[in-house]
Write a structure and sequence with these properties.
Layout lengths: L1 H14 L9 E3 L9 H10 L4 E5 L2 H4 L10 H12 L3 E5 L16 H14 L1
Parallel strand pairs: 1-2, 2-3
Length: about 120
């Protein structure tokens, strides 16, 4: 068993996998208004964290049916992360009170609306 594992590990550089750096990331909750943005990004940067995961919830983007606007706070944490050299990974999530009683999108109308929200954020 050990020899098979060693043989597999020896093949990794040839597969190009070893050349890819291991990316260290962290989960934040800036999208929920939590944390001290500048201080948290500073500590993350000092700790070698290269990416953070956060969300820009559907309900904060589409507050009136068919109208999309990025909240200033979301722009702020994304841009501050980029300026600090920390890549944001944005989660598109949660239901929207305007569709399917705020539950996850199930109806064709809600699924289409979620797709429009995703396209807007991208």
């Amino acid at each position: 068993m050990r020899s098979r594992l060693l043989a597999l590990l020896a093949l990794l550089p040839m597969a190009g996998l070893a050349a890819d750096p291991f990316l260290v990331g962290a989960c934040t909750h800036f999208g929920q208004g939590k944390g001290l943005l500048r201080a948290n990004l500073s500590v993350m940067s000092q700790g070698g964290i290269a990416s953070f995961r956060d969300e820009v919830g559907w309900g904060s983007i589409e507050r009136t049916r068919g109208e999309f606007a990025m909240p200033a706070a979301s722009d702020e944490f994304v841009n501050a992360g980029l300026k600090a050299g920390i890549e944001p990974l944005i989660i598109l999530d949660y239901g929207n009170r305007l569709y399917d009683d705020g539950d996850k999108p199930r109806s064709p109308e809600a699924i289409e609306a979620f797709c429009r929200y995703a396209e807007f954020v991208m």
